[in-house]
């Protein structure tokens, strides 16, 4: 049987909110937003892959980090989920500026701003070549958008989950503390969970493992990396 063209896959891309901000500062920076939108638009047009994106909200609000002991965890997490909606609308605008048809689907209902998440509709959008941006995380407090990415990737039967992040892969120890830390090219889910490597929360890893969705983690800031990953190049770390 002919091997499936690696570029013609159904992909779930997890972008942390920081992808839309400037050098780790808060908020949405139009230049950073446009740079990432350009890269995604180019990859979508040139590969014809089906693309869904889960966007985080950490550039605006993170429940656990930002409540400051004043806002209780559940409300603080609600604020984090709303932050992902702000980012999703920003990303939608930027992708459309770059010529990509998109839909935003949310796990919390905000009818005036976006569609609710309905799996069958998502699949239809993907088949029609629209990029679907998932916002609102899982819709539940105490979770992260990594878990939302694992959940949506499983639900839409994605071939792979790409986690574009601040580091260029998973290391055997913290490279900031240990100059001899080695990048791991490939690791099984079981090993990653047992070693508690902390590049993704355990709930997300377990869900991907159960549903056979492999994860590839790579550096978001290296230009062209998203396309390299989509086209099957050996970058970052593969968790399988
Ligand atoms: N969040 C939540 N439930 C979810 C997803 C996210 O409560 O299912 C909240 C949580 O407070 C989290 C914030 O939204 O800190 C932003 O998401 P995340 O930290 O995952 O964003 P990222 O780090 O990817 O930018």
What does this 3D model show about the protein?
With 240 residues, the chain is α/β, with parallel strands linked by helices. It has a single domain (10-239), classed as Carbamate kinase, CATH 3.40.1160. The protein has helices spanning 30-47, 63-66, 73-97, 119-127, 145-155, 189-195, 202-210, 225-230; strands at 10-15, 50-55, 102-106, 115-116, 131-135, 160-165, 170-171, 183-184, 186-187, 214-219, 237-239. It has a 9-stranded mixed sheet with strand order 4-3-5-2-1-6-10-11-9, with helices on both faces. It has a two-stranded antiparallel ribbon with strand order 7-8. β1 (10-15), α1 and β2 (50-55) form a beta-alpha-beta unit. α6 packs antiparallel against α7. It starts with 9 loop residues before the first strand and ends with a strand. The mean pLDDT is 93. Bound molecules: uridine-5'-diphosphate. Uridine-5'-diphosphate binds at residues 16-18, 56-58, 62-63, 77, 80-81, 83-84, 137-138, 140-141, 143-145, 147-148.
């Amino acid at each position: 049987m002919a091997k499936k063209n690696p570029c013609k896959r159904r992909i779930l891309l997890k972008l942390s909110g920081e992808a839309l901000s400037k050098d780790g500062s808060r908020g949405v920076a139009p230049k950073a937003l446009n740079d990432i939108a350009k890269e995604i638009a180019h990859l979508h047009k040139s590969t014809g892959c089906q693309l869904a994106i889960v966007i985080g909200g950490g550039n605006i609000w993170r429940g656990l980090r930002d409540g400051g002991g004043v806002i209780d965890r559940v409300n603080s997490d609600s604020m984090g989920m709303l932050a992902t909606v702000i980012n999703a609308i920003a990303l939608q605008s930027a992708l459309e500026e770059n010529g990509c048809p998109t839909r935003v689907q949310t796990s919390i209902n905000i009818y005036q701003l976006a569609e609710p998440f309905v799996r069958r509709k998502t699949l239809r959008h993907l088949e029609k070549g629209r990029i679907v941006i998932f916002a609102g995380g899982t819709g539940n407090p105490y979770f992260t958008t990594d878990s939302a990415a694992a959940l949506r990737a499983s639900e839409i039967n994605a071939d792979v989950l790409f986690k574009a992040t601040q580091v260029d892969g998973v290391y055997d120890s913290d490279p900031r503390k240990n100059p001899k830390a080695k990048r791991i090219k490939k690791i099984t889910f079981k090993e990653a969970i047992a070693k508690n490597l902390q590049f993704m929360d355990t709930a997300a890893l377990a869900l991907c493992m159960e549903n056979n969705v492999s994860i590839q983690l790579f550096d978001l800031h290296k230009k062209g990396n998203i396309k390299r990953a989509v086209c099957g190049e050996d970058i970052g770390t593969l968790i399988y």
